[in-house]
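check these tokens.
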Amino acid sequence: MKEKQETMKEKKQQEEKKKKKEKKKQETMKEKQETMKEKKQQEKKKQEKKKQEKKKKQKKKHASDDL
């Protein structure tokens, strides 16, 4: 009987370990996804800024053409 309890206890500990490991894994994945999301947003902002700069330059160019 005592052995059975020990085995059950060990099994329970193993399960807890597994759950903790899985939780940590999921948290890590979530963090990675958030980081990727942030990077994409920053990249998008950069692209938008480049577009704006290009538009400004083109406008200036056209203005000088009119003179």
In short: The mean pLDDT is 91.
